[in-house]
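Components:
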Amino acid sequence: MNSSLDEARRVFKVAPFITALGCQLDKLEAGVCHSHIVLQEMHQQQDGFVHAGVQATLADHTAGTAAVTLIEQGQRVLTAEFKINLLRAAKGSALVCHSTILKPGRMLIIAESEVYARQADNSLVLVSKATVTLAVTNK
Amino acid sequence: MNSSLDEARRVFKVAPFITALGCQLDKLEAGVCHSHIVLQEMHQQQDGFVHAGVQATLADHTAGTAAVTLIEQGQRVLTAEFKINLLRAAKGSALVCHSTILKPGRMLIIAESEVYARQADNSLVLVSKATVTLAVTNK
Amino acid sequence: MNSSLDEARRVFKVAPFITALGCQLDKLEAGVCHSHIVLQEMHQQQDGFVHAGVQATLADHTAGTAAVTLIEQGQRVLTAEFKINLLRAAKGSALVCHSTILKPGRMLIIAESEVYARQADNSLVLVSKATVTLAVTNK
Amino acid sequence: MNSSLDEARRVFKVAPFITALGCQLDKLEAGVCHSHIVLQEMHQQQDGFVHAGVQATLADHTAGTAAVTLIEQGQRVLTAEFKINLLRAAKGSALVCHSTILKPGRMLIIAESEVYARQADNSLVLVSKATVTLAVTNK
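Structure:
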């Protein structure tokens, strides 16, 4: 039984905006979180590509969940800032996100998220990469 | 008649993800775009605050629309990267975004977005600030 | 007598790298710091423009000094992260930096730095803009 | 004979600010650049750690040199923006930087730089990580 993983699982799923976007949790271990979104028309920007805001949301939330696996009971994380590079116009059947912790810490946790677009042949193409700074605070 | 403003108005509204989030256009002039979202439960993260992804989406899309007011016919903009600082846990009746152009350019346009949360007394509190780099390409 | 301003003045001047670059303090008040560098060949990159690293150093250090004006005795600030947009190839007789605090805080202070190049006619052209996140810790 | 590698080697070494800081080129191949600085007192900030500006300069310049290995004759790169996370207070005998290309492109090249501090036992500790956006232009 691991209460940090349980709390991370709860945090990932309970956020209404994450449910609204259809984000789903794929993998969770200490310092690691994988997730995905099955892409629909609602996720698009004006030219039919996946909106940067969708990629940013998945990158931020998956990073935050990876951070929650490392905090203590009674603590929570809030995103202090993030930066995302949109590397390619994103299209595909799903958006897949892999987040890992670059630097754990008592006050600040730094995470990286790689966002991939699943292609017709099932391959994953890297479409964006984010660095996320999370502040650890008491609930 | 100004075709750049018309195109910016179209770009703001036609993006399905922007409609899904309830983003609305408030003001548009050369190099300036204002917008807002009436906040609902769907915009929240796990602790009841506005999700960083909602703030990022509004900051990015409003910045992009401000950039579209400056491009020529047959061109479009794509976000190359952005960075957002979440300054305070955001709560309120609406999220308001003001975007301006820091540096116009033929290849790259740099915009800044300030995101405010409207409080019960109608005042606006700055909750996040983003810098957005937009790449100008031919359609 | 204001010990925070005295400490900020000390921090600005005592850093060996800042002395090596010729950075000078121009103005200091609560939450504000201005500085400049008289430009020499040593500040250039390969094409004769001011190196991005010089602009970043001045932007970071001036922001940090502005933050020090707001902390308590026995505390210090360390840069957690910064992001800088180089808006134009920078040339001129001097680099001038204006830093202000976007958001004070007990744990994190967010500052912005605007870097200008002084032209032959003495006018200032904005060449870069940075957002700096500073962590406040006990000495 | 590879003119892009020759040009990258030239760009790394010819920049006066890079010489002034003592940056040295260690490895160069298509899309990859490694460099280091032997640390001296001049590289320190006010508390005796390596100044963020030194880390940023090495991260930016090594990333730019990695990008130059990928461009065509008659082109050059200029840093459009970068973001750096300072992960730990940096101390040691040398600063070592490894830069790789995250995404090549005709207009924009995105690079990542990892900066390490060499410890007394010769091990390398990651002290900062940067993402650098480089604009490709004609000379």
